[in-house]
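Researcher: Predict the fold of Sushi domain-containing protein.
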Amino acid sequence: VRLFNDSSCSDAALLSGTVEASGHHGQATPAKAFDALTWTEWRAQCYSCQEEEAWIGARYAKPQRVYCMQLWQRGEGDYRTTRAALERWEASTGSWERILVGRGLESGRWDQVNFVHCGSVEVPENARVEITNNGYYPSDATFTCRGARILSGWSKISCSADGDWYTLGESGRRCWSMLEGIIVLAAFAALEAFAVGGYWYFVIARRVAPPLAAEAYIPEEHMRHWNNEFIVDLQEYARPQLLWCLFCPCCRMADTW
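Model: Structure tokens for Sushi domain-containing protein follow.
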């Protein structure tokens, strides 16, 4: 067994501590599990152990961060395990806390189980990001803007098991200043006023706009009744047209014309 304080299991990050174990058989003492020699072995006190019946670990004089472990097994069949867990002692609760699990382990080779370090995160201008779990999977990144600014795009993203960040909404992430927000709102308000004014002048006041078709796309029973079922009951080709008219002032005026 080898424990490291980096996720790449480099030799320079190898940790050493006082070896402890659930027990041993004969001369196969726990210390032989940490001597880095593959021809020596530690044998647990049980021959065919149940889950968590056999364990081995290290006690350190001061707290350590373990990001990677390597395991070499010599046994075959029932005398090897396909799954191993890394646990730490949580003094506040007085119990062991499982933090890393390796599966698909084999014998006769070094199996490596490590935490995945998430990649770098692109931070927009005038923004800051807070990353949980020291940037190791599972991890979340939360974006906030400095000063009186408004964030557009997703404010929180998660790291995947392969170390990549989910990029949904990343292209639109930006910190807008109050002045920029006022300009955008003013432009939208002016566009709405233009659309409403044009509708009133050409349709209500002058009444010169002829209907585009003799029959409407809207079912007769929904005329003058706006509710959630209104869009659902429309024909498929009419739904996108209605949505455009609802959210686009110019489209709404053009469709009215």
